Amino acid sequence: MAIAKKINSFISQSSFIRKMFEEGIRLKKEYGEAAVFDFSLGNPNVAPPEAFCDNLKEVSRACIPGKHGYMPNAGYWETRAGVAAQVNREQGLTTLTAEEIVMTCGAGGALNVILKTLLDPGDEVIAPSPFFVEYRFYVDNVGGELKMVPVKPDFSLDLEAIAQAITSRTKAVLINSPNNPTGKVYDFATMTALAALLEDKSRALSHEIYLISDEPYRDIVYDGALVPSVLAAYTNSLIASSYSKSLSLPGERLGFVAVNQGITDHDAVMSGLTLCNRILGFVNAPALMQRAITGLSGVSVDVEMYRKKRDLLCNGLASAGYSVVKPQGAFYLFQPTPIPDDVSFADALREERVLVVPGSGFFGPGHIRIAYCVDDATIAGSMEGFAKVLKKFR
Question: Contact at 8 Å (CB) between 214 and 131?
């Protein structure tokens, strides 16, 4: 075999999203764009805010000496200071500074940098499932082991399951709120209890257990939902985030790591993050994008547009006979399937040119993930297919 056996196995494990995306391309060529209802990718379709576009035009016209050259690997100081101020305001903090920020190539880059910095080979990372499938690969990149723990039926964290999964090899717990694929937002009481659990376990094991929070969807919440501050709840905590969803810039690959100011061995952690940003091959986050988002603290896409899409989808599915619980955040509905075999149900929808991702691809069988960051016409046009397939299996 030409490629590594491990990578070949990873390709098959991550194939559900890729398979549906590629199938969508094929079907659109055969039937036309309007006749295919593609909910496979979480690719934002709400336009970036006008303020970002204005900033981008301004900085791209400015020919400043050295601004396209190498920079400190953690990123421009003024950008990091702006991000720190943004995180302080969002999370009710006052102490975060540029010293606690590392600019990265998206949230994926941020997570890889964090894991490379913290993990030794054989260390374990606990992740509630369902979760974004690439977490497994990120942990494996540095020789770690990802341990899955179940969530409760309403997708909230099962703290007892997390407690039982912690061993002497546990180095971190990785959470994602608002969650991909479920749209769940973990509430304040849950965060407080999780922090207390990790503090107790850290003392008992005589080593730090880190809490890593993946937060690219933080700004996309509905109906008054609040995303509690992980940094305020737990000292040994780090955030990975990006501007892919909040500013609709996934192709620009801009994100950041924010670190609790009181984290154990603060200076060593920050030095490690900065070094790993370089040695993983990222070197630094894109210079032009760092300049373009500087000064945009508090600016985000129009979340109301996503809320309307969520309601259009959920109300339509409910009218078609599905039992639906509206997600609290992100732009995914993790819909239970009427049969245990979610892959077969997704295949039946594909026959109606409705493309969704089986929940098994996120280690959440018995569900399908519907990414509703699409045109309203796609949502409305898909309802006949959703209704037809549900009727078939009932």
Answer: no
Phi-psi region of 370 (alpha: psi -120 to 50; beta: other; left: phi over 0): beta
Do 38 and 118 share a domain, yes or no?
Answer: no
| pLDDT classification of 15: cutoffs 50, 70, 90 | low
Angle between helices 342-351 and 15-31 (to 10 degrees): 10
Range of the domain at 360: 5-48+302-393
- Rounded to an integer, what distance in angstroms lies between the CA atom of residue 144 and that of residue 70? 31
Indicate the residue among 238, 267, 293 that finishes a domain. 293
Model confidence at 289: pLDDT above 80: yes
- Asked if 247 and 339 sit in the same domain, the reply is no
The pLDDT value recorded for residue 1 is: 65
The answer to whether the CB of 353 falls within 8 A of the CB of 35 is yes
Closest CA to 179 of 138, 132, 231, 146: 132
pTM above 0.70, yes or no: yes
Residues 313 and 288 placed together within one structural domain of the fold: no
Pick from 293, 323, 342: which residue ends a domain? 293
Place of tokens 């894109």: 286
